[in-house]
Write a structure and sequence with these properties.
single chain, Aspartate Aminotransferase, domain 1, 2 domains, 5-stranded antiparallel beta sheet
């Protein structure tokens, strides 16, 4: 799905509003990489690193509005109360007219979202490290699933890089799951937490020996 298909079927006014939202993101974060997600009606994703999964914000088109979403919106400051949504992590701003994009507080949210990201080279290096660990495990295959590099044995996934945040997702071994409960480096993996998955935040201080142990444990459960 390209930009044209993402916009297709919407009124000219909604298409124009979406393009204006897109350009606002580009002005705040000219380094952003764009990607299209086809699920759930389609999203224009903005990422820190091309192909590295981590989505910072997105634009989606709806019948009467455009949403500008933030993957880690629940952790953001929002003094003007623009953010909507009740999810554990994601929030969005509903845009109905061009004037909504001119709110200074909206630009502040975008600036905060991008400023909170690790440096691009940290994320790129993290993806390569995760890839090296996983592809070194027998029978592992990698593919992009819902915009994220995902690692499988047969048809079962055991690791995902960057589910809407700088992180690596895995399924902890039952005997060790409680060890992470009070560790703020970990959080329930969006969409997969009900299956027992956790995510480990990625930053410049990531313990890569720990990552290896976690991924190897998750891999063993997938066999």
């Amino acid at each position: 799905m390209g930009i044209e298909l993402l916009f297709e079927g919407h009124t000219p006014a909604i298409q124009q509003l979406a393009e204006q939202a897109r350009q606002l993101v580009r002005r705040v974060a000219p380094q952003a990489h764009e990607d299209i997600e086809t699920s759930w009606g389609g999203y224009l994703l903005f990422k820190q690193v091309q192909g590295a999964g981590n989505t910072v914000c997105w634009v989606s088109l709806h019948k009467k509005h455009v949403s500008l979403g933030f993957s880690m919106g629940a952790e953001m400051s929002d003094p003007k109360g623009l953010l909507q949504g009740t999810g554990k992590r994601q929030r969005h701003v509903k845009l109905k007219k061009a004037e909504d994009l001119e709110q200074p507080a909206l630009r502040v949210l975008l600036e905060e979202a991008w400023a909170s990201q690790p440096e691009a080279d940290v994320l790129q290096d993290a993806l390569e490290r995760v890839r090296k660990i996983c592809l070194g495990l027998a029978g592992t295959q990698e593919k992009i699933s819902h915009g994220h590099p995902t690692f499988f044995t047969r048809k079962r996934s055991y690791a995902v890089y960057g589910i809407y945040s700088p992180s690596v997702a895995f399924k902890p071994e039952p005997s060790k799951a409680l060890d992470f409960a009070d560790d703020d480096r970990f959080f329930p993996t969006p969409y997969l937490a009900h299956q027992g998955w956790l995510s480990l935040r990625i930053d410049a201080q990531t313990d890569w020996q720990l990552v290896r142990e976690l991924l190897e444990g998750s891999y063993r459960q997938s066999l």
